[in-house]
Amino acid sequence: MGHATRSIPIIRILEELGHQVFLASDGRALLLLREEFPHLKSFEISTYNIKYSSNSMLWNMATQLPKITRATFGDIWHMKRLVKDLKIDCIISDNRFGCFHSKIPSYFITHQLNLDIPNPIARFFGNLANRFWMNRFQECWVPDAKRQPNISGKLSHPSPIQNVKYIGTLTRMKKIKTEKKYRLCIILSGPEPQRTQLEKILMNQIKAIEGKIIIIKGKTESKENINVSPNIEVVSFMTSKDLNQIICSSELIVSRSGYSTLMDLTVLGASALLIPTPGQTEQEYLANHFDQQGIFMMQKQENINLKIALQKIKNYKGIQIQENLELKEILSEIKNKKDA
Description:
By secondary structure, the protein is an alpha/beta fold. It has eleven helices and 13 strands. It has helices at 2-5, 8-16, 27-36, 57-86, 120-134, 194-206, 240-248, 259-268, 281-292, 306-312, 327-339; strands at 23-25, 42-44, 91-94, 106-109, 139-142, 164-166, 182-187, 213-216, 225-229, 232-235, 250-255, 272-274, 297-298. Strand 12, helix 9 (281-292) and strand 13 (297-298) form a beta-alpha-beta unit. The longest helix is centred in the N-terminal third of the chain and has 30 residues, at 57-86.
């Protein structure tokens, strides 16, 4: 979902520049993009369906490697077909290694130039494969600043490859002034079964929290909105505009430490409790990275305590990073290269 949400500002600007844009994805990410851009033609491509059933990142990836490999080569086949049928002249892929074409400009978006894998042997071969696929693209775009302050830390600094461009923060959000209506805004996201496990934990704890609370379940396939109690509202899914309003009107955001979420939070200057997905070392690193700087609080899923978080959050200063104002100029270069 995060890869889809951070693609939204790119799609909007490409349309402003007069490009004809086609969408390709799968699962909830595709449903979200169709909600945001109902007027654009979209296609379902290979399904990765990554699951984090174990707390071991190495085990999660090793057991799903055949599925990931099949999906990657499936994407290569889909791109050949779509480029031919639709006469596409440029591909922008957010973290899908197979979405490139050897005969047209292809750009790869990632914030993980350096994979954070605990096992040194697995880290070596993982980064070797990572660089191999990234070099299949004309440029690799990192949605972050090249220097401090930045969001990704060691995940993207320094760069191990040459064809890198730091394109600044990618977010669909804008800072707005509004009164604080909610004490807690809980945003659920990420792979199953961990998303549902987090939902159960938080649902049990919010019963003892005073003040208005809203839970956004991140289920694009559902339109269910219910009031669990006078102070607890549950929403299945929100568009960018509605979510922007809710985050700005909430005292504390509770969410995963996914990279796209962090870009949204830093641009909005929000106060946040981060709960990394167990077994996802990238999220664990990012949450700990911000916690150690006293910017956002981190709690592990097995040790969540919302009451303590509400008491201690005042010790965290938060941060506001300016949204990227050069994105339009960067995307304009695509047309210039195409026309050259």
